[in-house]
Write a structure and sequence with these properties.
The protein is an alpha/beta fold. It contains six helices and seven strands. The chain has helices at 9-29, 32-67, 84-90, 109-124, 163-175, 191-200, and strands at 74-78, 98-104, 131-136, 148-154, 177-187, 205-210, 225-230. Helix 1 (9-29) runs antiparallel to helix 2 (32-67). It holds the Pfam family Methyltransf_11. This is Methyltransferase domain-containing protein.
Length: 232
């Protein structure tokens, strides 16, 4: 049996331990309030698992549809991680179309494992002929200006710190995008920041889409959104 990978499993462990502690306190102290807390924590746990196992897949598919990729498009998956998004992009393409995945910040064994996993994922899905993955610095991407028809950034920018570096990362992603291309940012915070940067870069068509319950990482306070940006 193959178990699904959980995003940020430490958060899941914390929620689960809090629920267990609440159950123990409810039994020992006979307080209904702890049972209420337990129920709320279990709901949070369920929402988190839904977002990680099911919701994110639907959100990624939705974002790819927004890109309106032709079969011969050149597309960039920035922050490819395990390669699942890259495979989804590649399935929309046919040679000479190509999806390029970038694993950012290769500075640890874990990051190197992610890069190897992404390459293996492409091989398993038989997509190595229309997709590739490489390591790169998100602040200095090794690509030409106006190279890609679409750029997709999945849950990556919020990890880039400080603010000035996030701005630089958005600028780099925009630099590689063709004048008629679409940039899609999927994340759960800093959207006002992204919109301000992109407006300054000449993007006039910027929209933010709520992803609903499928994007709730434990609750509405950590809600996934899709930002779409076009210059025209």
């Amino acid at each position: 049996m193959k178990f699904k990978r959980v995003d940020a499993p430490l958060i899941l462990v914390v929620i689960a331990l809090a629920a267990i502690l609440s159950i123990v306190l409810a039994v020992v102290w006979h307080q209904w309030l702890f049972w209420l807390v337990t129920v709320l924590l279990l709901i949070c746990l369920g929402l988190y698992l839904n977002a990680s196992w099911r919701g994110k897949e639907q959100i990624i598919d939705e974002a790819i549809k927004y890109l309106h990729l032709s079969s011969d498009a050149q597309v960039l998956d920035l922050g490819t991680d395990q390669g699942n998004v890259l495979v989804k992009l590649a399935k929309h393409l046919a040679i000479p179309g190509h999806a390029t995945g970038v694993e950012i910040g290769i500075k640890s064994d874990q990051s190197n494992k992610s890069l190897a996993h992404a390459k293996a994922c492409l091989q398993t899905a038989a997509m190595a002929d229309r997709a590739s993955v490489q390591a790169a610095d998100i602040l200095n991407l090794p690509f030409n200006d106006h190279q890609f028809d679409g750029v997709l950034i999945w849950m990556t920018l919020h990890k880039v710190k400080p603010t000035i570096n996030r701005a630089r990362a958005v600028q780099e992603a925009a630099r590689t995008l063709k004048s008629n291309g679409t940039l899609a940012i999927i994340d759960f915070k800093h959207f006002d920041e992204y919109q301000k940067i992109l407006t300054g870069l000449g993007f006039h068509d910027i929209t933010v889409h709520q992803c609903g319950v499928n994007g709730w990482w434990g609750g509405p306070w950590l809600s996934t959104k899709i930002l779409l940006a076009k210059r025209f």
